[in-house]
C-alpha cells in the first residue's frame, strides 16, 4: 500500500513540505472574475439555474424541517467524518483487506494520470473490440471520474464511455460540461434538451419538450447499452471499512443497471469516502438525500461486496484515488473540506453560483465547495485556482446548509490568506496598495483621526453630493452603484467637539 | 451603565449620524457613553482579503483602545463588525502566533454587543415606542444582513424592535435572507456578480413599495443605498450585464406628497407597460411579476439606529445614509 492519507504534524507554512497536488480536470485558465463575466450575460442560463435552485432550496428546507434532530444529525455526520480523516491510514488498510477478501481487486492511484491508466488497462482487458474498431463501457454518474477526466482520456484510447445518468447523458450528448455536481444539466431547459436528443439520438424521432417523453427516449436509447456492454465504470458514495463494501445512492435506477448487468465493474473512489461500518449509514442516508434532492430517501440505494459466482459482475475492481486529497488533508485549516459528501446543498443556496452557474468555477467541483476543494487539492498557485476563494461574499448560507458542517466561509478566508502569502504578482494591485495603506492608518486611532480631518475638504470638493463615477478600482464600485455624499465631519470629530463643548459648559457652571 | 461605543470605520468616516443615533438611544435610557479614542476598525476588511499580517496591528489597535478605557459593556451599530470581533480577531491573532492578543480580543468581543442585542438581551427593551419614544410614520422594509442573521443569530431582535416603533408601516422584504452582494472587497474583486446580486435585492425592495429600506449594518446599507441611488437616478445599473430591466421614470417631488420625503423622486413604471419591457440590453427580469406597478417610491437605505432614535419631537428626515442630517446633537 502506498503512503496515503497521513496527516502531517502541525507545521508552519514556511517549512511545510510540498505535497503533490491533484490534477483537477481544470477546464479554464482564467480567473473566476473573467470567466464569470461571460456567464453572467447568459440570461437563459441564469433563468434556468435560478428556477432550479430555488425549487430545490424550498424542497430541502421542507424535508429538513421535518426532523427535529437535524442539528444532531449534522453534528454526528461531522464527527464521523472527522474520525475517519484522523484515522484514514488504518481505515484504508482495513477496507483493502476486506474488499480483497470478498473477491475484489484494489488499485491505488496517486493522481488522475495513474487512475486513468488503470481504468484504461482494465477496460482493454475486459471490453471487446466492436465492429467499429472501438471498445465501449457504460458509466454510472461519478464525480471522481469527472475529476480525473476519464471519459476524455478513454476516448483518446479508443474506448467510448456512455453516461447512463439522464442529466449526465444530456451533458455528454451536448458536448458540454456538467455545471452542478448533482444536476449536471441544471443549466439546460427542456427545449434545449429536446433539440440535443433529436440531433444526437439516431432513433429518437420527433420529440416534444415533455419531460416524460424525453425520459422515455433516453430510456430506449440506454436499455440496449445496459444489455450488451461488458464493462461498467462507477463512482461510489461510500466505502464501508469493516465489510469492504461499496455503495451508490441514486434516483433513476440506471446506476443499479450498471452495477449489476455487466461482467466487469470498475469503481473509482476518492480515499476520503470511507465510513467505519454499516451502522454509520444511519446518519448519512438521512443527511444526503435530504440535502441533495430534498427527498426523505433516494429511490435507489445499492451496496455490493466483492463478487458472487453467477450473480452480478464477476470482475470487481476499485481504484482508490488520492489526486490531491492527501494534500488537502495536510492542511489543518482546510482539511474538513474532505468531509464533503457531494450533496450540492451549498451550490443551491449560493448567491454567486446562482448568478454565474457552475462553468464559471472552471473545474469539476463548482460552487462554494468547489471554491475550497479545488485550491485545497490542486494548490492556490495556479491563477484559476487562486481566484476561487474570492468568488464569495462570505454570506454564510453554505455553512448553514452543509449536512456535515463544513465551515466553508472560514476555509475561504484561510485560502485567501494562502493566496495572499503566495504573492502572485510582484507588483501590488491597486486594491493591495489600498489595503496596505488602510492597515497603516488603522493601526493607530490618531492616524485615522488625521486621515478623517480631510473630510471637510473632500466634502467641499464633491460639493456635498453623491459620487457617481471614480477611476481605478473604485470604478468597479461606481460602475453600478453611487457612493453616498461624504459627511463634513467624522463621528470622531463630532464627538471630540461635543466633549469640548460639554467641558466648557461644566467650567462655566 | 457605562457603555463603550465602537463606531466602526464605515460609520465613523461615512455615516457619523448612525453613531450619533446610537448614542442618542442609549442616553435616552440613562446610560453613560464613552468613546475609546484609539479605536479604528475591526480588521474585517483585511482579514477577509486574506491579509492576516496587515490585520494584526488593526486588531491590536482595537484591543488597546478598549483595554485603555473603563466600561461595562461595549456596543457597535454593526452586526458584521461585532461578528468579526468574536469570530475572526482571535483566530487571526492565533494564526499570527500572538496568543496574548487572541485572549485579549476574545475577552473584549465577549462583552461587545450589536445594538439590537444590547437593547433586547442586556437592557430588556421590547417596545421601542414606549421605551425609546421611537416614532417613524413611514413604510419601511428590512434587510437582515448575512452576518447578523448567520453569525450573530440575531433572529427577530431587529425586526421586532422596528415593528414596535410608533407609526411605522412595516412590510416584509421578499427573499430577505439573500445577500445584497456587498461582501467588502468582494464588490471590488467580483464587481459584476456583486452588481447582479444587488440588482435583485433592489428589485425586491422596490416590490414592497417601502420608502425606506433599513437594516443593522452600515456596510450593507452603503451597498444598497448606492444601488437605490443609481437605480433611481438613471433607471438602470449602467455597465452591469443584464441586471435590470425595470425602468424608473423621474417625476416631480410633489407626487410624493409628504414633507418628510420631499426629496424622493421616482415612480416605478406605473401606467406604461414599456417600463417593464425586458430586453433592452438583450435581457429580461428573472421574475417581473414580483415588481408591483403603480406605487410611489423614493427609496432610501437608512440604518435602524436612526429609525429607533427618531421621535415626534425630532423626526428623522428620510434621506439616504451619507447625506447630511439636520439636528443630531449628541446631548
TrEMBL record, chain A:
InterPro entries the record matches: 4Fe4S_Fe-S-bd, 4Fe4S_Fe_S_CS, FTHF_cligase-like_sf, Helical_ferredxn, LUD_dom, LutB/LldF, NagB/RpiA_transferase-like
Superkingdom of origin: Bacteria
Xref: Pfam families: Fer4_8 (PF13183), LUD_dom (PF02589)
Single Gene Ontology MF annotation: metal ion binding
Ranges where the 4Fe-4S ferredoxin-type domain occurs: 337-406
Keyword Transmembrane helix: no
Transmembrane parts of this sequence: none
Ranges where the record places region Disordered: 1-24
Any one GO biological process: lactate metabolic process
Protein name (record): L-lactate dehydrogenase complex protein LldF
Alphabetical UniProt keywords: 4Fe-4S, Electron transport, Iron, Iron-sulfur, Metal-binding, Repeat, Transport
Domain named LUD: residues: 92-317
Automatic annotation (TrEMBL), chain B:
Stretches for region Disordered: 270-294
Pfam families: CCG (PF02754)
Domain Cysteine-rich stretches: 3-85, 140-224
Residue runs in coiled coils: none
GO molecular function ontology, one term from the record: oxidoreductase activity
InterPro entries per UniProt: Cys_rich_dom (IPR004017)
GO CC annotations on file: cytosol
Entry-linked PANTHER family: LACTATE UTILIZATION PROTEIN A, UNCHARACTERIZED PROTEIN YKGE
Protein name (database record): L-lactate dehydrogenase complex protein LldE
Organism: Brevibacterium marinum
